[in-house]
Amino acid sequence: MTARVEEKLYQNRYLVDVRRPHIRIMPHAEPSPNLLAMTRLCPAGCYSLTDRGQIEVVPDGCFECATCRVLCEPSGEIEWNYPRGGFGVLFKFG
Ligand code: SF4
Questions:
Q1: CA 59 – CA 64 distance, rounded (Å)
Q2: By Cβ atoms counted within 10 A, which residue in 30, 31, 45, 61 is the most buried?
Q3: 62 within ligand 1 shell (Cβ under 6 A)
Q4: Which residue, by CA, sits nearest to atom 6 of ligand 1?
Q5: What confidence tier does 6 reach under pLDDT thresholds 50, 70, 90?
Q6: What angle do CA 47, 36, 46 make, to 5 degrees?
Q7: Residue 85 Cα, ligand 1 centroid: separation in angstroms?
Q8: Domain locations along the chain
Q9: 4 vs 79, residue with greater confidence
């Protein structure tokens, strides 16, 4: 029997570092194409478009895949750090 990807991902656990998000978006009037693309590319759905046309991030369920880091950190649009030790995603394999 094969498991669905969603079922596999559901096995992961997260320990949220309250009030210390490991990803921050810099203030922006309107998002760059790369930042806007994160609303479709982030596998954890952490990025969203607000009613004001800006991008916000809620990294509580972040997989630490670094897609947003590669696309948006070099331009200074986001700050990206690994969560502190003991926080963040806990992958469950098998
Ligand atoms: S590191 Fe990956 S999972 Fe985490 S917010 Fe960025 S794109 Fe999403």
A1: 9
A2: 31
A3: yes
A4: 68
A5: confident
A6: 10
A7: 18
A8: 26-90
A9: 79
* CA pair distance 42, 58, nearest whole angstrom: 11
User: What's the pLDDT score for residue 94?
Assistant: 64
The closest-lying atom of ligand 1 relative to the alpha carbon of residue 59 is: 5
**Model confidence, pTM:** 0.90
What is the Å distance from ligand 1's center to 20 Cα? 16
**CB count, 10 Å around CB of 69?**
16
Mean pLDDT of the chain: 93
Q: What is the pLDDT of residues 16-54, one digit of tens each?
A: 999 999 999 999 999 999 999 999 999 999 999 999 999
The domain made up of 26-90 has a fold known as Alpha-Beta Plaits (3.30.70)
Closest to 73 in 3D by CA, of 30, 38, 29: 38
In order of 21, 40, 77, 78, the CA distances from 89 in angstroms are 13, 20, 23, 20
Q: Decide whether any atom of ligand 1 lies within 6 Å of the 64 Cβ.
A: yes
